[in-house]
């Protein structure tokens, strides 16, 4: 079955960077994209961007451009999301999801990132 | 920036019909998608392309579209349907993905 397994929780200091991984299985990795969505505590879902696993094309949310980088490693069917210059309001659960042109059909369980001094 | 508007909360009794709306100017041009999220869990896709239901989603979940509003309908609501529901779409250019603010469905 299609599965996305994310890396474990992270605690970072303000100004640091975090890199979250998302390992896909159960489907042809390069036939789909991966989207990243985050959810701050008690808040709604916020789309961060997507990456095509076929050609590496990306589309980042305007709010995060310059601080976020999404990459893939097709040899291991793994996607990565790096967020730099972390601030306290980046504290959130970060989800990866399989991206099908316009939407997300299968989601990972989420990775908690806490930014605190 | 483009926004999708949902009511913060909807309440229904078991067995009744729940309707959750989502409004946005680009919805006549862009498909809408609906996700269910239970506490402490990842979202689950329940409706795609306005009205299509993924395999494994109960038939009581349906979607519809009319002008600038899309609606998620849950017929014969069950206690297990209590969750947050989010609509998702894109701006008129199709470039920027947006989520609605979410609707908390309470089953009385």
Summed up, what is this model?
With 117 residues, chain A is mostly beta strands. In chain A, 0% of the residues lie in helices and 54% in strands.
Characterise the protein shown here:
The complex is a heterodimer of chains A (117) and B (108). Chain A has 117 residues and is mainly β. Helices cover 0% and strands 54% of the residues of chain A. Chain A has no helices and 11 strands. In chain A, strands 2, 4, 5, 6, 9, 10 and 11 form a 7-stranded mixed β-sheet that branches. The radius of gyration of chain A is 13 Å and the shape is globular. Helices cover 0% and strands 44% of the residues of chain B. Chain B has no helices and 9 strands. Chain B has strands at residues 9-12, 18-23, 33-37, 44-47, 61-66, 69-74, 83-90, 97-99, 103-107. In chain B, strands 1, 3, 4, 7, 8 and 9 form a 6-stranded mixed β-sheet that branches. Chain B has a 3-stranded antiparallel β-sheet with strand order 2-6-5, with no helix packed on it. In chain B, a hairpin with a 6-residue loop joins strand 3 (33-37) and strand 4 (44-47). Classes of the chains: A mainly beta (117), B mainly beta (108). Chains A and B meet through strand 5 and strand 10 of A and strand 3, strand 7 and strand 8 of B.
